[in-house]
Task: inverse folding
């Protein structure tokens, strides 16, 4: 279960997530300082645990890859990727400096002080976005939260995948309404997606990584790529 470290400031609650290898005893533990009741990006959402589990399962694939996490917040998936040997950049809204600072705090807590943290506003082709190196894997947990943000997210993804057509966007999302869909937007921005069943990476359980967060939430995962020319 999530552990609370009572020795830290009362403003923070430290939670620990342990990702295990189902074939041997190898495991990875990540600590996250949460600030409950603050910005959305200051605590762990269920989708982040599921995405981090996928990154852990695919750790051989992410090793030595260039990885960018969008809307990182507490940065759980990005930290797991960095611990698995990826070259990670964390990002969150340029308009919310508290979230950017919290991403740095989470990295430092997990002995990753050199991980870059940049401010990126979805939908804006900013100098910060342009200055990023070509990205192999983009991570995004619960970035499809507000429907008005869906296209902005995909504009950013489309820009990054044009720079590296072999790149992939790994994303988890919670189904909050059957009326919400991104299929039309994917076609508009020349993108395609593949669903990833949670059971193939052992994420279809209530106590994932020692957390009760995923529970019965209707979380789904998909991989988005650039459309192939026919």
Result:
């Amino acid at each position: 279960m999530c552990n609370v470290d009572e020795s830290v400031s009362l403003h923070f609650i430290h939670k620990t997530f342990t990702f295990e290898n189902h074939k041997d005893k190898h495991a990875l533990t990540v600590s996250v300082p949460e600030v409950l009741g603050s910005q959305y990006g200051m605590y762990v959402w269920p989708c982040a645990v599921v995405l981090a589990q996928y990154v852990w399962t695919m750790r051989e694939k992410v090793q030595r890859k260039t990885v960018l996490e969008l809307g990182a917040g507490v940065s759980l998936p990005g930290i797991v990727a960095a611990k698995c040997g990826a070259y990670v950049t964390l990002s969150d809204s340029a308009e919310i400096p508290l979230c950017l600072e919290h991403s740095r705090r989470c990295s430092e807590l997990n002995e990753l002080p050199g991980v870059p943290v940049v401010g990126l506003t979805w939908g804006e082709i900013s100098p910060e976005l342009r200055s990023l190196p070509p990205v192999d894997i983009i991570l995004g947990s619960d970035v499809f939260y507000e429907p008005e943000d869906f296209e902005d997210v995909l504009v950013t993804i489309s820009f990054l995948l044009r720079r590296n057509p072999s790149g992939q966007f790994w994303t988890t999302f919670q189904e909050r309404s059957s009326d919400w869909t991104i299929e039309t937007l994917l076609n508009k921005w020349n993108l395609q997606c593949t669903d990833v069943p949670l059971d193939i990476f052992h994420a279809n359980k209530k106590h994932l990584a020692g957390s009760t967060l995923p529970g019965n939430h209707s979380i789904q995962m998909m991989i988005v790529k650039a459309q192939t020319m026919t």
User: Anything to note?
Assistant: The chain has seven helices and nine strands. The longest strand covers residues 13-20.
